[in-house]
Each structure stands twice: as C-alpha cells, then as structure tokens.
Amino acid sequence: MKILQVKAKRQAQRKLRIRAKITGTEDRPRFSVFRSNAHIYGQLIDDENGKTLVSCTDLGIKSKSKETKVQVAAGVGEELAKKALAKKIKKVVFDRNGFRFHGRVKALADGARKGGLEF
C-alpha cells in the first residue's frame, strides 16, 4: 500500500474506535470536529435523531482576518458556543474525529469552552 492509503486507513480506524464510545443525544449533543489542511469545521450533532443542531466553520472568519490558523480555530469555537447557547445547549460530548487533541483541534475546544460550552 502507498503511504497515503495507510495513513487514511489508520485515521479511519481511529475515528471508528472513538465513535464506538461516543454518542450524542438531544440534551447532550456530540461536538464533532473536522480539520482539513486549509479549514476547520465544528458541528453539534444529535445522533438519536440524526440531525445537526448547530454548525460553524472558518470560511467566513478566515477571509476577513490575517490571523493564524490556530487563532481562527479558537474564534470558530467561540462562535459555535454562541450559537449553541442561543439554542439552550450548554453540555456537549467532544468528538475529535480521529485527530490529535493538539493545535487547531485543541484551540477549537478551548474556544468553545471559553464561549460557555461544558465538556
């Protein structure tokens, strides 16, 4: 196998291993993170009903500022927390989606905590 295929397979295995232990409910939704090389996305998902309750991305924030990716990720976390609190969601379950809890993923989580979410 080529190295990129091996890396993708390992990431998928990590994701499934984490998702086997984490589920989101309407009262305590799953806070799912997706990180690409250029962008970062966050969603609050109710797995029982299969619905996304709140979502936020850096696509609007990044074009306006000259901040680093980590600073933008923290801003996305705060924005997601504001939207969640508007819908009366305070507690969530964090799903790092197979990514390391480091860098932009950690900054997103810290921003969400700073915004008022508990996990």
Walk me through this protein's architecture:
By secondary structure, this protein is an alpha+beta fold. It has a single domain, classed as Nucleotidyltransferase, domain 5 (2-Layer Sandwich), CATH 3.30.420.100. Helices cover 45% and strands 19% of the residues. It has four helices and four strands, in the order H-E-E-E-H-H-E-H. The chain has helices spanning 3-19, 59-64, 69-86, 104-115; strands at residues 30-35, 40-46, 51-57, 93-95. The chain has a four-stranded mixed sheet. Helix 3 runs parallel beside helix 4 (104-115). InterPro entries: Ribosomal_L18, Ribosomal_uL18_bac-type, Ribosomal_uL18_bac/plant/anim. Belongs to the universal ribosomal protein uL18 family. It holds the Pfam family Ribosomal_L18p.
Brief characterization of the structure:
This protein is an alpha+beta fold and 119 residues long.
Number of strands: 4
| Poorly predicted tracts of residues | none
| Helix count, DSSP H or I runs of 4 or more residues | 4
| Average predicted local confidence, pLDDT | 93
Tell me the CATH topology: Nucleotidyltransferase, domain 5
| H and E string | HEEEHHEH
**Proportion of β residues?**
15-25%
Query: In whole angstroms, how far apart are the ends?
Result: 38 Å
Strand order, largest beta sheet = 3-2-1-4
Oligomerization category of the chains in this entry: single chain
GO cellular component, one term: cytoplasm
GO molecular function, one term: structural constituent of ribosome
Keywords: Ribonucleoprotein, Ribosomal protein, RNA-binding, rRNA-binding
Organism: Candidatus Woesebacteria bacterium GW2011_GWB1_40_12
